[in-house]
Amino acid sequence: MNFSGIITGIISFLIIGILHPVVVKGEYYFSSKIWPVFLVLGLIACIASLMIQSELISSILGVLGCCLLWCIRELKEQEERVKKGWFPANPKRIKQS
Q: Which member of 21, 32, 61, 84 has the greatest number of CB atoms within 10 A?
């Protein structure tokens, strides 16, 4: 039996589940200006997935890299959700227009 597909699916689910709160907290504490962190980490993970020989680890790194790159978009959307009042704004952060 080959469990690599199931393992990749489970880990993908976990990565998505972990990164959602990371985006919410990241926007809360640092604003959406932390997008370069997600860009660099995502590119590193994607490039590493191309270099790794193991199919399972390569797949997981590819999923992680793409999810980190997707977080850039989610940061912008989280900023909009905060403006709409769906999520709390950080009262300690100075408002910028």
A: 61
